[in-house]
């Protein structure tokens, strides 16, 4: 099962998760350029491209890198079918036949991919991936790579930010399938939200593909579909330990509701509860007595939903089962969760049911970073958050602007100039390092030319801002981590890093986030993490800049 | 090729476009509910669900319905595989075997789907689809249907809004693949942007699947990959009519550049142009002389890119070819397009090249509704807009809140109450009509009970706001259109509407938008289009509301 654990099985890397991922999944201009390279005899020139982004999303100062495994699977299977070739012939009718013969031949056996490990905390300008190979082939990879990394990194980062604001102890559930960009958008969302620190998803297909824990109970429609307790025909329920059978669970529930209504400590908090809701809860408990979690806001949370839930839970308790909890999907979640908690505690005390007060409360109505933060400030009793729309659509910022820039061709460094300094790319085939300080925090990322000596533990090194002459600092790293590792070396599997299962990437992500200095992570005015270049690379960038700028426009 | 034209071939409807679309593509709670229905013996009860949305997106007053064909393909292929069943067994270990036998059996032969035609202009509260069938089966369809309709309708609407602001005469190109939510997000984006009125896409895979015209030229990397004209080895180019061959196209280009530099009318506008750019343009023209469209902003638009482009175009012109135009991807697009246009006109005059001044100008830098509107207000000379990020991510509003609500079960009308009136659903199995006025504009949509007489042309009918007693109006329709048509009648193909190809849906969409009264369409403070219920349905809703509300809370 390559799909469910993501590991490389000997030489073979499985098909991409999404079988629609074909080499045609690219922009037309990659083919017109490939043709122009081919016509000019340049198509085999060895090119180096960097894939990077320019700004952290969501007003934060960090990003999580996601999508690497999908990129590697893509190139491992990069080969045109005859049907794809014929389609391209029809789209580019003036191109010579020799070009299509060339396309028939190509694969990624001459391509190398160096990348930061998936699930790492990453920063602007530092290449997430460095892709080397024949210029025409690597150019064809641009669009799919950027497509596969952009949303993956964005939504992983969004998930990590939700985890940060919710805190470590809360359960985070991804409920976004219905709001994602189509089926595969939903599957990607579930995969990368889990990677970013969520605990479970509602998406069954994603659960199967990636081994993500699944969660879910019932909807309002389920509650509305019942009219009364009379509808329940089979009323028997075996006790949890199998030692006895209750012949009329419905009466047991009604009996507990009566006891509650008569209890001094609960008197006056509710009157007659909604009977179709009670029927729905009772039916659900009869079907899934070990997983009784009820949506309590179809009619009125405190006057109907919570009392009905407690009656069913107490009946279950009498048979040795333990109810799971409630879900709130509307209203004032802070207030309702606190009121529900009080009610559960009152039940615990009134009927002497240990732990009943600790019943799980899940909240799930249009939640996002801001609403969770607001709930935290108000005080609440929510244990689990079910988050959908704002998480999977990355509503607060729906795109990460990853780019794919040529930095070297035929051993000649290239740089993309722009009047906007933030858009200037850093030339050369580079190595990238993360330097750690005495307290174990990462201090700075540094890019160097390929052939420079690597920074060494304990040795002072000058780190320069790539474009601002006055910004520079000497750093003595206590630890040096090389960021770009080989994930694809043509056909050879020997030199390659493993592709770990999603679960392991999730662990890496959580661990890396914990390692960050807190001021980079805070939601309000976080401190930017510094990204630098070596002194030699700095000088070279500025030498090239002068030479590439058009005459009369030395910037 | 069912995929490319979307038509039904006799009885058979092809597989969904995306093979990942399996019956597992749903929320877990649909299965836990299905199990609870099954345990309660309710799973066969006939239920009616409405799929609708509550608010138009993007601050507008209309939405375009997309995603219907994908829903119909989904149900046409709705069947669990043994592998899927085993996965479900592992996820729901306490469920009885009989339930999985039931799942093995089910398909959608007992389901009926009535829907508004895809590509129609639609409004809040009116069901886009009405789905009837055994409650457990239809419940399993909720998540995939909402998933397939939500993003499709949202991005189609976004595309239509971009078309509206750009105007009918501009060419609109969708360039969003790299910013979409993964591969399938990109493919959906291309499909539905075309449906909403775009002219072409850069996405080759979408072009193949749906027959969408493809567009694309080259990137900055292509320009940066060249160093000088010396790199160009094969310099020969046959003339357009094949009658002659130019042995040194490079010299011809240089010769034209010289002529331009010496021309009185152009003197002083540019000096030495960038030679790697000139080499890139020349190479591109040698490869694709019929499709020469150059990206002119790698170095400096007016001092290098446009003059280099014109030199190559004039050389092509001498051989009988006609250049396509330029693309601007940065800077002040209004200003640059106007300057480029002046330059083209000067070339037309100076060298007497008819139509040269009409050269196509494409703009493509982070465009959206607002920036196009701003360009229009400033004045510009752009002919084509290439739009990516803001279009496909629906950045301005990343989600449409489609819902799927139970409105009837076992012939009993059901309604979802809420303290928030906008969230109350309209009960009953309904029919929906669009009433047209004298000028041909749609006046109002009206929902009626299933068995009420349909509104008739020329007959006065009372249209009531569903929840606001004081809002009511008599309407005498000049034309009545029934909105919900049968798109799936179990196994029978006889009663079904056709699923037209994407191109035809696009035509319907454009035509429907043109038919709308202009005040509903304007960007600033558009007039809401009215959605109403019949007097009988109004009375029934309010009767039910009183009866369903919990005691002590008559709302």
From TrEMBL, chains A, B:
One of its GO terms (biological process) is NAD+ biosynthetic process via the salvage pathway. Transiently phosphorylated on a His residue during the reaction cycle. Phosphorylation strongly increases the affinity for substrates and increases the rate of nicotinate D-ribonucleotide production. Dephosphorylation regenerates the low-affinity form of the enzyme, leading to product release. CDD domains: NAPRTase_A. Residues 429-540 form the Nicotinate phosphoribosyltransferase C-terminal domain. Its EC number is 6.3.4.21. It catalyses: 5-phospho-alpha-D-ribose 1-diphosphate + nicotinate + ATP + H2O = nicotinate beta-D-ribonucleotide + ADP + phosphate + diphosphate. Signal peptide: none annotated. Pathway: Cofactor biosynthesis; NAD(+) biosynthesis; nicotinate D-ribonucleotide from nicotinate: step 1/1. It comes from the Eukaryota. Gene3D superfamilies: Aldolase class I, nicotinate phosphoribosyltransferase. GO terms for molecular function: glycosyltransferase activity; metal ion binding; nicotinate phosphoribosyltransferase activity. The keyword Manganese applies. One of its GO terms (cellular component) is cytosol. Residues 24-150 form the Nicotinate phosphoribosyltransferase N-terminal domain. Keywords: Glycosyltransferase, Ligase, Magnesium, Manganese, Metal-binding, Phosphoprotein, Pyridine nucleotide biosynthesis, Transferase. Its cofactor is Mg(2+); Mn(2+). Catalyzes the first step in the biosynthesis of NAD from nicotinic acid, the ATP-dependent synthesis of beta-nicotinate D-ribonucleotide from nicotinate and 5-phospho-D-ribose 1-phosphate. Helps prevent cellular oxidative stress via its role in NAD biosynthesis. Belongs to the NAPRTase family. This is Nicotinate phosphoribosyltransferase. The lineage of its organism: Eukaryota, Viridiplantae, Streptophyta, Embryophyta, Tracheophyta.
């Amino acid at each position: 099962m390559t799909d469910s654990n993501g590991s490389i099985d000997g030489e073979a890397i499985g098909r991409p998760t999404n079988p629609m991922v074909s080499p045609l999944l690219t922009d037309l201009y990659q083919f017109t350029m490939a043709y122009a390279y081919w016509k000019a005899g340049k198509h085999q020139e060895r090119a180096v491209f960097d894939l990077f982004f320019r700004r952290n999303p969501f007003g934060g100062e960090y990003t999580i890198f996601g999508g690497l495994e999908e990129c590697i699977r893509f190139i491992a299977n990069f080969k045109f079918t005859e049907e794809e070739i014929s389609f391209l012939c029809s789209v580019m009718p003036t191109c010579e036949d020799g070009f299509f013969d060339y396309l028939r031949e190509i694969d990624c056996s001459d391509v190398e991919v160096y990348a930061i490990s998936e699930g790492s905390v990453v920063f602007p300008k530092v290449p997430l991936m460095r892709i080397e190979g024949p210029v025409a082939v690597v150019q064809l990879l641009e669009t799919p790579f950027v497509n596969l990394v952009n949303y993956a990194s964005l939504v992983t980062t969004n998930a990590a930010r939700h985890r940060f604001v919710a805190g470590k102890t809360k359960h985070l559930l991804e409920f976004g399938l219905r709001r994602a960009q189509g089926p595969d958008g939903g599957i990607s969302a579930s995969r990368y939200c889990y990677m970013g620190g969520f605990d479970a998803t509602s998406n069954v297909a994603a659960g199967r593909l990636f081994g993500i824990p699944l969660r879910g109970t019932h909807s309002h429609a389920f509650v509305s579909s019942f009219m009364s307790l009379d509808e329940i025909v089979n009323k028997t329920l075996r006790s949890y330990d199998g030692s006895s059978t209750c012949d009329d669970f419905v009466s047991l529930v009604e009996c507990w509701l009566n006891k509650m209504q008569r209890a001094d400590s609960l008197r006056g908090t509710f009157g007659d509860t909604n009977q179709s809701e009670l029927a729905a809860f009772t039916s659900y408990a009869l079907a899934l007595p070990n997983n009784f979690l009820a949506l309590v806001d179809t009619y009125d949370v405190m006057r109907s939903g919570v009392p009905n839930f407690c009656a069913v839970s107490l009946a279950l308790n009498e048979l040795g089962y333990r109810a799971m909890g409630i879900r709130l999907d509307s209203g004032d979640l802070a207030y309702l969760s606190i009121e529900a908690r009080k009610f559960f505690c009152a039940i615990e005390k009134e009927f002497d049911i240990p732990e009943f007060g600790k019943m799980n409360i899940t909240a799930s109505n249009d939640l996002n970073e801001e609403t969770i933060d607001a709930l935290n400030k108000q005080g609440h009793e929510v244990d689990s958050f079910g988050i959908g729309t704002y998480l999977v659509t990355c509503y607060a910022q729906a795109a990460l602007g990853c780019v794919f820039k040529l930095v070297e061709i035929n051993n000649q460094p290239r740089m993309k100039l722009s009047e906007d300094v933030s858009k200037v790319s850093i030339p050369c085939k580079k190595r990238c390092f993360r330097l750690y300080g005495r307290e174990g925090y990462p201090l700075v990322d540094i890019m160097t030319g390929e052939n420079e000596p690597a920074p060494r533990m304990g040795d002072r090194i000058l780190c320069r801002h790539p474009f601002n002459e006055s910004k520079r600092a000497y750093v003595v790293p206590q630890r040096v981590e090389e960021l770009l590792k080989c994930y694809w070396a043509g056909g050879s599997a020997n030199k390659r890093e493993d592709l770990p299962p999603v679960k392991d990437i999730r662990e890496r992500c959580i661990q890396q986030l914990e390692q960050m200095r807190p001021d980079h992570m805070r939601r309000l005015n976080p401190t930017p993490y510094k990204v630098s270049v070596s002194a030699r690379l700095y000088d070279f960038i500025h030498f090239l800049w002068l030479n590439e700028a058009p005459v009369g426009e030395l910037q």
